[in-house]
Design a protein that fits this description.
Helix content: 10-25%
Radius of gyration: 16 Å
Shape: globular
Order of helices and strands: EHEHEHEEEHEHEEEE
Largest sheet: 6 strands, mixed
Strand content: 15-25%
Length: 239
């Protein structure tokens, strides 16, 4: 399967023409589209409706997760409703497996907290525990979905990065807020084949989890506002 992937669309005023053309173009290149969060700029209902209108020309299946921008106005549930009505499967609400059972998708927004031996531990002040426990809650959702998933090839979509690798290029002070290696745990445990994420606008495309699963940063700013096409055959030996 050829997967068209993108993240950090930041749909806002004046975006219609660009995104209508983008989704129309991706039809000829991909068999399924994955959107890795920050679909809107400020998490506004009208922005979500704009995305829904822009994808009306997409004739391929699409799955998505939300990003931090999509939570800004606390409209995340309404945004997911709008996008699902437009035919986009929101992975926060459950995994997606292709009709032939060959490729499955699990995902959620994720959260931050740092990487490997530098990640934040749930120790000390209550507010710090609440902070990092959000990352554990997000991770547990993917853990549950991968555990129950029956598919030959498994893709995980996040907004936040599960590895430091793809954040290289960002200011070092910002990197702990771009993702967390806790998000890698279910990926390696259940032998996913590919991970897609966004959020790290100044990062790089390629990385891998501690278990060797390929990770790809598909944020549009990383790819000069272009989507990326990945063929599952190129990753079939992973996991």
């Amino acid at each position: 399967m050829k997967i068209g992937a993108m993240g950090d669309l930041h749909f806002g005023t004046g975006s219609h023409i660009f995104y209508r053309a983008l989704f129309k173009s991706i039809n000829k290149d991909a068999e399924l589209v994955v959107m890795c969060g920050d679909l809107t700029t400020r998490g506004l209902i009208e922005e979500a409706r704009g995305i829904a209108d822009a994808v009306s020309g997409l004739d391929k299946p699409a799955v998505a997760v939300l990003g931090n921008h999509d939570h800004e106005a606390n409209n995340q549930e309404e945004i997911m409703d709008i996008l699902e009505d437009a035919g986009i499967h929101m992975l926060e609400r459950g995994p997606y497996v292709t009709e032939d059972g060959k490729v499955g998708f699990a995902g959620t927004k994720g959260f931050c907290g740092g990487f490997l031996n530098c990640r934040i531990a749930p120790f000390g002040e209550r507010i710090l525990k609440m902070f990092i426990n959000e990352t554990y809650r997000e991770t547990n959702r993917v853990n549950r979905d991968l555990k129950s998933m029956k598919a030959d090839f498994k893709v995980v979509a996040y907004h936040y990065s599960p590895v430091r690798d793809t954040c290289i290029g960002e200011h070092s002070e910002v990197i702990p807020f771009l993702g967390c290696s806790i998000l890698s745990d279910p990926i390696d445990t259940f032998k996913a084949n590919l991970v897609l994420h966004g959020h790290a606008h100044n990062g790089i495309e390629k990385g891998q989890t501690p278990g060797g699963v390929p990770v790809r940063n598909v944020a549009l700013p990383v790819h000069n506002k272009k989507y990326v096409i990945y063929d599952t055959e190129d990753f079939s030996s992973s996991g």
